[in-house]
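Encode chain A's predicted structure.
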Amino acid sequence: MAKRSAKPLKPRDFQGLKYVERLLPLLDQLHDVGCQRDRSGNRSLHYDQYCMLVLLFLFNPVLRSLRSLQQASTLNNVQRKLGCARASLGSLSEAVEVFEPERLRGIIESLAAEVKPVRDVRGGHLAHALTAVDGSVVKTLKTIAEAAFMNDKNGGSHSGWRLHTHFAIDRHVPTRIEVSAAANSGHNDEKNRLRAALQSDHCYVLDRWYAQFTLWNDIVAAGSSYVCRIRDNSNLNAVIEERPVSATAAAADVLRDFIVDLGAAKKPDERPAHRVRVILVKTTPHTKRGGRKGGTAGPPSDGVLRIATNLLDVPAEVIADIYRHRWTIELFFRFFKHVLGCRHLLSTHPKGIEIQAYCAIIACLLISLWTGRKPTLRSYEMICLYFAGWASLEELLDHISKLKSEET
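Encoded structure for chain A:
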């Protein structure tokens, strides 16, 4: 059966662009980025306009490819609202090699400063900003040859990119994404990427991959703290101090709380240079069922979470709750790939992927600012319906007001 051609886009498919217009003053500072190469002065697609088109792609399910985005740029309504002219497919493809992704970080910081905490996980016991850190791979097939000859044992392609992400747990928004090759090794190892991006006054919430003593030392040296799960087979025999488990902690499934001496005595340079506290928390046992399709590739668990931290004075139940909220970054990855449509990349160029990732962060921040709550599928769908003209502004505002009333 012949493949049906896509229906041409119409101006009415792009109603409700006034929300995106809010970004125009912030994006103005990007207008001249990349113009140094334009000696003839005939550049028609500027950085701010490209970002607005990417945001239009993220907020409108009608757009599914770079070609559809190019078609959208020909519509009068899009040109008028976004302040851009018709963009050729070549201009959209070439743009990512000229523009600078890191210039979007200042805009992200400006918007993130406006987002209020959704909830206080810390309970007033910790001043550091809770930041979950993890990486996720977005796969893409760059060539037919890679699809045919570079598959893993499960039939998946090795062609992909890893997104090294920092996620603000209290505000439920991402604050930083860096793009690297998919291989989690060498300079692109998630531990090394975190080490290079450490900031002060953050509490980094980490999974087992980050259980590296030298990384913990670097976090503490940067003036921050960590809450990190360690492996089930960790040697915890050198107990320095056993701490009593309060009734409140026991009710939160805390089994044990103690200070321990970690690391081999023969490698003093690789041992923690600070006191390490370990908290054992009861959880659901998990058995690995294999990495093939239909199985579970994650490591097994004996039903006990072993959480290491340098926070010696924070109640054990708060530490346990902080680690439980590490899962919010996994929910964001799902939202990022499946809801915002970032499983499909507009570009396979590293800069293009990073720009799309940063624009996705901006999209999440806008949803949080509009609704006053964490980005959800329902809110995203309602905004998309408004953009497509199926929902009125009053209906969108009514949806937002219901969310805020549920919060109170």
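The radius of gyration is 24 Å.
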